[in-house]
Design brief:
Layout: H1 6-20, E1 44-45, E2 55-56, E3 85-88, E4 119-122, E5 127-130, E6 133-138, E7 144-149, H2 163-175, E8 189-194, E9 199-204, H3 211-217, H4 223-226, E10 246-252, E11 256-261, E12 275-279, H5 284-292, E13 298-299, H6 306-309, E14 317-319, E15 327-332, H7 342-350, H8 354-361, H9 384-389, H10 397-406, E16 410-411, E17 417-418, E18 426-432, H11 436-450, E19 455-461, H12 463-472, E20 477-480, E21 484-485, H13 489-496, H14 518-528, H15 533-550, E22 554-558, E23 564-566, E24 570-571, H16 591-595, E25 599-600
Parallel strand pairs: 1-21, 3-12, 3-13, 18-19, 18-20
Antiparallel strand pairs: 2-6, 4-5, 6-7, 7-9, 8-9, 10-11, 11-12, 13-23, 14-23, 15-20, 15-22, 16-17, 24-25
């Protein structure tokens, strides 16, 4: 079992010494620990809903560039990528060449690097930045949302981008429910139509003002490519055609791949760097060693004791861990007994030592979660009264045991509880192998739950297998991330709404635990029809009360937005002193701000 101990610190030091003496790192797979879910359309409401008036967003300077024929040489060697920025962003046993933005097993930077959205939400500044669209307006009744498309944008193959591509993308999502992004938006959208080359109308079934954030965040694909694809779910999109700053797959091998700049990018002169390369690592420790040794220019990994092991090692090393990420949860499959009992879920929560998880697994980079479930991204919404009253997120073994006894889950001679039919409470707790902070958190929870008579075995999987299980609801217990935004509506929609519910076996990009609250559905409706901030705040408090009462899942800690950088070869990264974007490479749209700002030295 993996634990944080003095021995681990000694092991890290020994590894660093060996690496400094020339010990090789054998690349096998790519890592980044998960605490910030990739933001996908339907999952991110970026700010409070706008007033029901026409809204123009400040313009990003647009510069049309002449069309250039793209090139994609995948036959070369890794040496050809030496001038590329090296990044550590995700984890797989081996790289699988898939740049389909509508499936979960996609390579970085498919979302918000290869493909782009209509607008970018800057998480740190709380600002909307126009991107493929320059502005949006609401109709008087708030039922039609109109986006104006930017002039001069080309697809990477030189063909013009237009409003028709936007409408096509959305209607593709409507007709293919297995595609993982944009699905929840069609619960409130009625139609999407391009009225001309520059204008696209989103017509709502009913008023849902927060939908603007789902819509602006959705990446757009080219109609002239995707309309020829027979099965968009199985399409691996090995050579993507897109509008983003990096579109050319210049090398793809099992252990490394490279993505070069878009020859027809609409922001003339950008990106400043030639491309990005992605070595594979077998786990978080290997990725950390490469990052600490200066082999990675940009990373999104959990690094233990980062000030000593990383910052102190090189003046070019830096990090920025804003606590604006989604809350990390222990998900219990609520379609199965006894997890369908709120009292059992709360008892399990009371058996967990969050202080130990934060101190040992998370190195005090964050803090324990509370009974609202909300991360630190919602200071203007969070109710301190609900936080104070939510004792089910505080360690209390006595209360946990009493609640489990009351639920009829009696202890056997071996100390393990059983259900009323004699089935022992023995479960696997799923986690991604190599995500060492989460693995450590799971090991602590396993030990905690044994104290109350629940036998939990930590089961590690490659990311692809893990995400498949949680997406389909085929698990008993799993650690996982949550969705978010600048208002709480998408967080609670993802946790306990019928809009995000899918039967077990069907893919759900959120609501993995399969929980529906009629009360929350009504509150989401109430929140959705108003654009008054004070009214939204009052509804958000009721949402917090509903979550605290029903405990649909077990919140563990707010997720830090992992981001490390090294300025030896490249400059312009976000920093604590210049937080122009979050910096975390977890497919949030504001990573486009980083990708179009970083420059070679």
């Amino acid at each position: 079992m993996f634990k944080r101990t003095p021995f681990f610190s000694l092991l890290m030091i020994m590894m660093l010494i060996l690496a400094a003496c020339g010990a090789a790192v054998t690349p096998t797979t790519a890592p980044s620990v998960a605490t910030e879910v990739p933001a996908v359309s339907g999952n991110t409401d970026a700010t409070a809903a706008p007033d029901a008036k026409p809204t123009a967003v400040p313009a990003v300077e647009a510069t049309a560039v002449p069309a250039v024929e793209p090139t994609a040489d995948t036959s070369g060697s890794a040496d050809a990528l030496k001038d590329y920025l090296t990044a550590s962003t995700e984890q797989q046993a081996t790289w699988v060449r898939n740049f389909n933005p509508f499936v979960t097993d996609r390579r970085f930077p498919t979302l918000y690097g290869i493909y782009e959205p209509l607008m970018v939400y800057n998480t740190i500044k709380g600002e909307i930045v126009p991107w493929l669209a320059t502005e949006y307006t609401w109709s008087d009744d708030n039922k039609i949302l109109t986006f104006t498309i930017r002039d001069g944008v080309l697809w990477s193959d030189g063909k013009p981008f237009s409003a028709k591509d936007v409408a096509y993308t959305w209607n593709l999502l409507k007709s293919n429910t297995a595609l993982v992004t944009g699905s929840s938006a069609w619960t409130y959208l009625d139609s999407v139509t391009a009225t001309d080359e520059k204008t696209v109308d989103f017509t709502f079934q009913k008023v849902f003002t927060p939908g603007v954030y789902d819509i602006m965040n959705q990446i757009i694909v080219p109609e002239h490519i995707w309309s020829t694809i027979e099965d968009p779910v199985k399409f691996t999109n090995e050579n993507p055609v897109a509008t983003g700053p990096f579109t050319e797959i210049t090398l793809f091998q099992n252990q490394i791949y490279g993505v070069g700049k878009n020859p027809n990018y609409w922001q003339a002169g950008k990106p400043y760097i030639a491309g990005m390369r992605f070595p594979a690592y077998p786990g978080n420790d290997q990725a950390n060693l490469a990052t600490i040794n200066g082999e990675n220019d940009w990373a999104g990994n959990f690094i233990p004791d980062i000030e000593k092991t990383f910052v102190a090692k090189d003046p070019n090393n830096g990090y920025f861990f804003p606590s604006a990420g989604g809350t990390v949860f222990l998900y219990l499959n609520t379609t199965k007994a006894p997890f369908d009992d709120v009292n059992v879920r709360k008892a399990i929560s009371q058996a967990i030592d969050r202080d130990q998880i934060v101190a040992v697994a998370m190195y005090d980079y964050t803090k324990p979660a509370d009974a609202t479930g909300l991360s630190d991204a919602y200071p203007s919404f969070k109710s301190q009264a609900i936080v104070d009253a939510g004792d089910w997120t505080t360690l209390d073994i006595e209360k946990a045991n009493a609640a489990l006894d009351a639920a009829g889950l009696t202890r056997g001679a071996d100390g393990i509880r059983t259900t009323t039919d004699g089935t022992p409470l023995k479960y696997d707790l799923n986690v991604v192998s190599g995500w060492s902070d989460w693995v450590s958190a799971c090991e602590i929870m396993s030990q905690n739950l044994k104290e109350v008579g629940i036998d939990v075995t930590v089961k590690t999987y490659d990311f692809s297998a893990w995400i498949d299980k949680v997406n389909k609801g085929e698990f008993d217990m799993s650690i996982g991330w949550s969705t978010g935004g600048a208002t709480p509506i998408n967080f609670y929609r993802g946790q306990m709404s019928s809009a995000t519910f899918k039967p077990v076996g069907e893919v759900a990009s959120e609501n993995w635990h399969r929980y529906v609250s009629k009360d929350m559905d009504a509150l989401i409706e109430e929140f959705s029809v108003t654009s008054d901030p004070s009214a939204q705040k009052a509804v958000a408090e009721k949402m917090q009360e509903a979550f605290a009462a029903e405990a649909p899942a077990v919140p563990l800690f707010p997720g830090p937005m992992w981001f490390e950088y090294n300025t030896t070869r490249f400059t312009g990264f976000p920093t604590k002193d210049d937080p122009y974007a979050s910096g975390s490479p977890f497919s949030t749209s504001d990573q486009l701000l980083l990708l179009t700002t970083v420059k070679p030295k």
